[in-house]
Write a structure and sequence with these properties.
Layout (H helix, E strand, L loop, with lengths): L3 E8 L5 H11 L5 H13 L6 H15 L5 E6 L4 E6 L3 H10 L6 E7 L6 H12 L4 E7 L8 H17 L9 E3 L23 H7 L12 E10 L2 E7 L4 E3 L3 E5 L4 E9 L3 E3 L1 E3 L3 E6 L13 E3 L6 E12 L5 E2 L3 E6 L2 E15 L5 E5 L2 E2 L3 E15 L10 E6 L2 E7 L2
Helix pairs in contact: 1-3
Bound molecules: guanosine-5'-diphosphate.
Length: 413
Amino acid sequence: MRENLHFVAVGHVDHGKSTMIGRLLYDTESLPPDKMEEVRRMSEESNGQPEFAFVMDHLEEERTNRITIDTAQTFFKTEKRDYTIIDAPGHKQFLKNMITGSTQAEAALLLIDAEEGLREQTHRHAYILGLLGIKQLIVIVNKMDLAGYKEERFNELRDQITARLGEFNMTVKPEMIIPISAQLGDNVAKKGENMSWFSGMTMLEALDKLECAKTTEDGMLRFPIQDIYEVDGQKIIAGRLVSGAIKSGQDIIFHPCGKSATVDKIKKNFNEDFDVAVAGESIGLTLKGESAFKALKRGEIACDVEPSPMVSSTIEAVVFWMSGMPVRLNDKLDFKCATNQMQCQVKRIDNRLNSSSLEVIEESSNELRETEVARLTLKLDGYVATDKFEQVAETGRFVLMRDTDTVAGGVIH
Ligand code: GDP
């Protein structure tokens, strides 16, 4: 199966995001034939300077007619693999989608206008990417043609970017800061003659160098129990493997209860026995001996013996509040992570900030309002097993419910 890498493109408005996406699609021949033709014609008429943003607007219209999801996706491919560009209409929407798990990006392209340089939004974008644990970043310095293709200008911006990203604990390798002209195509799919001083990769080469998210099969074993039922006197644990792989005969530990057990049979497809199951599969599990079953119930997670998840009755996490009704200190909510659900109480609201401007509203607050983000401390009614979001997304992310409404999403770092 061909790899598919999902990345998000972020940048200040007008720094050339649409143009860059249009150029990428054109150079990889991923536009529909009539659009390819249109760009070719425009290019001839305008002395090699087609207006890609215009092409993208057309595509946008077609896309919105076809799909009704919040985050638009665009596709292209190289010889190496397929790509999905996640187009974030605004970072508020993007943050919400990422935090609730409806969008997953493995990498980001951060776009900066060579003429205008770094803007306040560059800070915000870096903050969001850091928050979401996106570690792979390519920085694109666009519109180099408007900066006379000057090496000094690029070097100046490169140094500023490196320093600023450092403030957010984001490292970016020097060869992943690339000077391009999206409009003219320099260093996008092919080396630009205008920037012979630049010895780094083109944008496409840099994209091909990124790593696809480790397939979850390679990750730590996490099998949250959905249900336990009995067939012909035999107890079977049912659930979906969210990370890693499991083998018959393997020793496992359930968390948070801490009970060890040995896997006997793995059942798939209506009770057929298999030796192995991998992430994504829904399975039934039988255990050797019945003793472990006394402690087991929905919400317990079968894990490798090592490394263990975090087991605690206190959760600290970055939470994005989505409900029109604010949350206040000491409010009680339902905490839902993987198959676990229990009541929790809000004990602290720190670093409360506006998700649009990313301005800090209060360092320590009594409440959190719609579309705001804060670091919350939650006291749970019992123990849960969780992971860091970067390690296992499914057990590193949770939602908060009030009655039957999902009012917030959270990410554990
Ligand atoms: P977005 O708001 O980030 O999507 O920006 P657009 O792609 O709409 O680009 C904003 C303006 O910058 C448009 O007029 C583009 O034609 C122009 N632009 C984008 N990339 C380049 C470039 O590499 N060189 C030049 N000269 N203009 C560019």
